């Protein structure tokens, strides 16, 4: 079997050979700030909505400007990836923000597909597994779930 380059104009099943799929994944913090004269503070503290949200109220965000406030969240990017059943999946993860992330991969059956590991800012980590089950594998960060998770969808191989 050769490489699959196009399915245009084809009808029926397409055979995709099992292989290795590698993704570059980044752990990052997205931030936004403003001042109270431009926008009132949120009516609900974002930290109460999700463990992944952060909030610095006026006076805490910037000691030199008592009206400035800030929100942030941690994310994996990309947030969604797709592979075929039987593929070996390798995630090369680089952490930009956050001193500590306790990271693991959950299989479609709810069991740990890749054991938990601690990941730190400024370093690259490799996590690999074989996508033996069709369904959704989840890349988690315990400190920042549910906002810091990524889905790896595994399509059944026909």
Topology:
Layout: E1 20-35, E2 53-56, E3 68-77, E4 80-84, E5 88-95, E6 101-106, E7 112-119, E8 124-130, E9 135-141, E10 149-155
Parallel strand pairs: 1-5, 4-10
Antiparallel strand pairs: 1-3, 2-3, 5-8, 6-7, 6-9, 9-10
Span from first to last CA?
15 Å
Q: Helical content, roughly?
A: under 10%
Secondary-structure class? mainly beta
Beta strand count? 10
Q: Tell me the major beta sheet.
A: 5 strands, mixed
User: How are the strands ordered across the major sheet?
Assistant: 2-3-1-5-8
Number of helices: 0
Oligomerization state of this entry?
single chain
Estimated radius of gyration: 20 Å
* Uncertain spans: none
Average pLDDT level: 91
| Order of helical and strand elements | EEEEEEEEEE
Strand content: over 45%
General shape: elongated
What features would you describe in this structure?
With 158 residues, the protein is an all-beta fold. The protein is 0% helix and 49% strand. The mean pLDDT is 91.
Put the structure in a nutshell.
The protein has 158 residues and is an all-beta fold. Helix content is 0%, strand content 49%.
Descriptive labels:
158 residues, mainly beta, five-stranded mixed sheet, 10 strands, 49% strand, elongated
